[in-house]
User: Fold this.
Amino acid sequence: MGTSYEKDVVAWANEQAALLRAGKFSELDIEHIAEEIEDVGKSEQRELASRMAVLLTHLLKWQYQPDRRGSSWRRTIKEQRRAIMEHVEETPSLKGSLLDEHWIRKTWSDAVTKAIEETNLVVFPEACPWTMEQAMNPEFLPE
Assistant:
Protein backbone atom coordinates (compact mmCIF):
# COMPACT_ATOMS: atom_id res chain seq x y z
CA MET A 1 0.00 0.00 0.00
CA GLY A 2 1.03 3.60 -0.25
CA THR A 3 -0.30 5.06 -3.51
CA SER A 4 -0.59 8.79 -3.16
CA TYR A 5 -3.88 10.58 -3.60
CA GLU A 6 -2.35 12.87 -6.22
CA LYS A 7 -0.77 10.04 -8.21
CA ASP A 8 -3.74 7.66 -8.66
CA VAL A 9 -6.97 8.53 -6.86
CA VAL A 10 -8.67 5.23 -7.73
CA ALA A 11 -5.83 3.10 -6.37
CA TRP A 12 -5.65 5.43 -3.35
CA ALA A 13 -9.41 5.03 -2.72
CA ASN A 14 -9.16 1.24 -2.87
CA GLU A 15 -6.24 1.28 -0.44
CA GLN A 16 -8.10 3.58 1.96
CA ALA A 17 -11.15 1.32 1.86
CA ALA A 18 -8.96 -1.71 2.62
CA LEU A 19 -7.37 0.14 5.55
CA LEU A 20 -10.79 1.06 6.91
CA ARG A 21 -12.04 -2.52 6.64
CA ALA A 22 -8.89 -3.79 8.32
CA GLY A 23 -9.32 -1.31 11.16
CA LYS A 24 -5.96 0.34 10.45
CA PHE A 25 -7.24 3.80 11.26
CA SER A 26 -3.87 5.32 12.08
CA GLU A 27 -2.73 4.64 8.50
CA LEU A 28 -5.64 6.46 6.88
CA ASP A 29 -5.22 9.63 4.83
CA ILE A 30 -7.88 11.47 6.86
CA GLU A 31 -7.61 14.87 5.15
CA HIS A 32 -8.12 13.48 1.66
CA ILE A 33 -10.85 11.11 2.82
CA ALA A 34 -12.72 14.09 4.28
CA GLU A 35 -12.31 15.98 0.98
CA GLU A 36 -13.63 13.03 -0.99
CA ILE A 37 -16.67 12.68 1.28
CA GLU A 38 -17.45 16.37 0.85
CA ASP A 39 -17.04 16.00 -2.91
CA VAL A 40 -19.64 13.22 -2.95
CA GLY A 41 -22.18 15.67 -1.51
CA LYS A 42 -21.18 18.37 -3.98
CA SER A 43 -21.47 15.91 -6.84
CA GLU A 44 -25.01 15.01 -5.80
CA GLN A 45 -25.92 18.71 -5.64
CA ARG A 46 -24.41 19.34 -9.09
CA GLU A 47 -26.37 16.42 -10.52
CA LEU A 48 -29.63 17.83 -9.18
CA ALA A 49 -28.86 21.34 -10.44
CA SER A 50 -27.87 20.04 -13.86
CA ARG A 51 -31.04 18.03 -14.27
CA MET A 52 -33.20 20.91 -13.05
CA ALA A 53 -31.49 23.30 -15.48
CA VAL A 54 -32.23 20.91 -18.36
CA LEU A 55 -35.86 20.66 -17.24
CA LEU A 56 -36.24 24.44 -16.94
CA THR A 57 -34.53 24.95 -20.31
CA HIS A 58 -37.04 22.65 -21.97
CA LEU A 59 -39.96 24.30 -20.21
CA LEU A 60 -38.71 27.65 -21.54
CA LYS A 61 -38.37 26.27 -25.04
CA TRP A 62 -41.85 24.79 -24.74
CA GLN A 63 -43.31 28.14 -23.73
CA TYR A 64 -41.36 30.39 -26.10
CA GLN A 65 -41.23 28.20 -29.18
CA PRO A 66 -44.73 26.68 -29.43
CA ASP A 67 -44.30 25.96 -33.14
CA ARG A 68 -41.35 23.68 -32.38
CA ARG A 69 -42.99 21.60 -29.65
CA GLY A 70 -42.63 17.91 -30.17
CA SER A 71 -42.39 14.51 -28.60
CA SER A 72 -38.63 14.87 -28.07
CA TRP A 73 -39.07 17.91 -25.80
CA ARG A 74 -41.96 16.22 -24.01
CA ARG A 75 -39.81 13.11 -23.40
CA THR A 76 -36.92 15.22 -22.09
CA ILE A 77 -39.24 17.06 -19.69
CA LYS A 78 -40.71 13.78 -18.48
CA GLU A 79 -37.30 12.12 -18.11
CA GLN A 80 -35.77 15.02 -16.18
CA ARG A 81 -38.74 15.12 -13.80
CA ARG A 82 -38.43 11.38 -13.22
CA ALA A 83 -34.68 11.57 -12.67
CA ILE A 84 -34.98 14.56 -10.30
CA MET A 85 -37.65 12.81 -8.24
CA GLU A 86 -35.56 9.64 -8.08
CA HIS A 87 -32.48 11.63 -7.10
CA VAL A 88 -34.32 13.43 -4.30
CA GLU A 89 -35.87 10.17 -3.06
CA GLU A 90 -32.42 8.53 -2.93
CA THR A 91 -30.84 11.60 -1.30
CA PRO A 92 -33.59 13.28 0.76
CA SER A 93 -31.31 16.04 2.05
CA LEU A 94 -31.31 17.47 -1.49
CA LYS A 95 -35.00 18.33 -1.20
CA GLY A 96 -34.06 21.55 0.59
CA SER A 97 -32.31 22.76 -2.57
CA LEU A 98 -35.66 22.90 -4.32
CA LEU A 99 -36.72 25.56 -1.78
CA ASP A 100 -33.43 27.45 -1.57
CA GLU A 101 -33.71 30.84 -3.32
CA HIS A 102 -29.97 31.07 -4.07
CA TRP A 103 -29.95 27.57 -5.59
CA ILE A 104 -33.05 28.35 -7.66
CA ARG A 105 -31.54 31.63 -8.96
CA LYS A 106 -28.30 29.87 -9.95
CA THR A 107 -30.13 26.98 -11.60
CA TRP A 108 -32.45 29.41 -13.39
CA SER A 109 -29.46 31.36 -14.67
CA ASP A 110 -27.96 28.14 -16.05
CA ALA A 111 -31.29 27.23 -17.69
CA VAL A 112 -31.64 30.65 -19.33
CA THR A 113 -28.07 30.48 -20.63
CA LYS A 114 -28.79 27.07 -22.17
CA ALA A 115 -32.12 28.24 -23.60
CA ILE A 116 -30.46 31.27 -25.24
CA GLU A 117 -27.76 29.04 -26.73
CA GLU A 118 -30.33 26.57 -28.07
CA THR A 119 -32.94 29.04 -29.35
CA ASN A 120 -31.07 32.28 -30.08
CA LEU A 121 -33.90 34.04 -28.26
CA VAL A 122 -33.19 36.61 -25.55
CA VAL A 123 -36.72 37.12 -24.22
CA PHE A 124 -36.61 34.98 -21.11
CA PRO A 125 -37.61 36.28 -17.67
CA GLU A 126 -34.89 37.34 -15.25
CA ALA A 127 -36.40 35.19 -12.48
CA CYS A 128 -38.00 31.79 -12.73
CA PRO A 129 -41.74 32.31 -13.29
CA TRP A 130 -42.60 28.90 -11.88
CA THR A 131 -42.22 27.32 -8.49
CA MET A 132 -40.14 24.18 -8.36
CA GLU A 133 -43.36 22.37 -7.44
CA GLN A 134 -44.90 23.56 -10.72
CA ALA A 135 -41.81 22.65 -12.70
CA MET A 136 -41.90 19.15 -11.23
CA ASN A 137 -45.65 18.66 -11.72
CA PRO A 138 -46.15 15.97 -14.41
CA GLU A 139 -49.27 17.81 -15.63
CA PHE A 140 -47.58 21.20 -15.99
CA LEU A 141 -46.49 22.56 -19.35
CA PRO A 142 -46.27 26.36 -19.71
CA GLU A 143 -48.37 27.87 -22.46
About this structure: The domain at 9-136 is CATH 1.20.1220.20 (Malate Synthase G; Chain: A; Domain 4).
